[in-house]
Amino acid sequence: MKSLYLLFALLFTISAGAQQHTALPHGTVYGTKPSTISMMPATKLETYMDTRTRINTTIEGKVIKVTKTKGGWFELDAGNGKIINAHFKDYAVTIPADLKGRTVIIEGVAQKQFIADDGQHFAGDTVTGKKQHSVNANPKQSLTFEVSGLMVDK
User: Fold this and answer.
1) Distance from C-alpha of 53 to C-alpha of 140, rounded to nearest angstrom
2) Domain that holds residue 96
3) In the chain, is it the N or the C terminus that has fewer CB atoms within a 10 Å radius of its CB?
């Protein structure tokens, strides 16, 4: 009879532990702590970059979705229906899926997506004829961000 009670107690303990969610309080840091000195909103990043293809910066934005927790792959809202694809520089970083909908501050390298079909014949694209302009680039995902540090803001 004692073993039956022990079995039930063990089952209830395991099921109660599986229902806990990870709390994400303000200030939770993943990777290195980002510097907030020259921070800008993610909606202004593309205009700030102008003609530069890569910059080191800190931005603040809202996470649309976490695509892969291991390696920290997520999408950030860049305004006007645009998306910034972000991932951690260090693959060992694991972020929770509960980050969706939260405002975060991220520091790292922002980079414009390179498309070889812009008439840049020195980029190795020497195709002529029908195949010359058949690249399928998504204009909503023109920026990528390699994150070195993330901090949960709101």
Assistant:
1) 17
2) 25-127+137-152
3) N
* Residue 36 included in any domain: yes
Q: pLDDT tens for residues 120-144?
A: 555 554 555 555 555 555 666 678 9
Helices (H), the chain: 2-18, 45-49
Cα angle 119, 121, 125 (rounded to 5 degrees) comes to 90
Cβ neighbour number for residue 138 with a 10 Å cutoff: 10
Q: Is residue 8 in a domain?
A: no
Confidence (pTM): 0.70
Q: Encoding tokens for residue 106?
A: 């991220």
CATH of residue 72's domain is: 2.40.50.200
Please state, in angstroms and rounded to a whole number, the distance separating the CA atoms of residues 86 and 62.
12
Residue with tokens 């202004």: 44
